[in-house]
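Lab notebook, bench 4. The sequencing result for the construct came back, and we need a structural model before the next group meeting so we can plan mutations. Quick request posted to the team channel:

Model the 3D structure of this chain.
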Amino acid sequence: MRIVWIYLNLIFWTLFFGLSSFFTILLTGRKENFKFFSEIWGKTLSFIFNVKLVVKGKHNLNKENYIFALNHASLIDIPLLFIAVKRYTVFIAKSELSNIPIFKSILDRAGFIFVDRKNNDSAIKSMNNLIDDIEKTPRSVAIFPEGTRTKDGELLPFKKGAAIFGINTKIPIIPVAISGTYHWSKKKLFDISQSVITFEFGEPIITKNCSFKDRDHLTKKIKLDIEKMKVN
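Done. Here's the predicted structure in token form:
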């Protein structure tokens, strides 16, 4: 029953703030306005779910844009990231989400990109479109290298997408370790105690002088850095 309550809140507030950002961007022509609504979305859900967010490693971030590579354990990872990064950030989303018409329109307008992981040519084309669009409207990009949520709290094998995207764009990669969201997702229905969730930003991984042959090394480093920071 708790998962139903979580989904209902996610769907309602996602549509509420998503549509608000959609029409604001439509009227102003500025995708950057998504930042304002994404942060309010995250803060609203953290309040409803009684989550205390702790952010570590802020000194590793400056005003430039990054590729944030995060471990993935729960449905609240995305809204909490928007609070933690405090900058215009979009996710690389799986193509299945584009089958939801309203959701697709919202994310398209905000500057997200949908990637079909089963179709390599389509995925490459989508990533190239995002690279071109980033040159017009700079933003940070968040990627879950695991590709999906963990089922037991342990890290899954990392895919190379974050490393390749960093190589192609020359944007620094920031490993981000999320701790506490897996346990939050497993709480009982009537457990209203506060959950402490930590986002820790690692040191930037510079991709400026990297080439395609470095993708395996970069992927291993991203995972290793997250493993060092992740608590549970």
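The CA atoms of residues 47 and 194 lie 10 Å apart.
Will bring this to the meeting.
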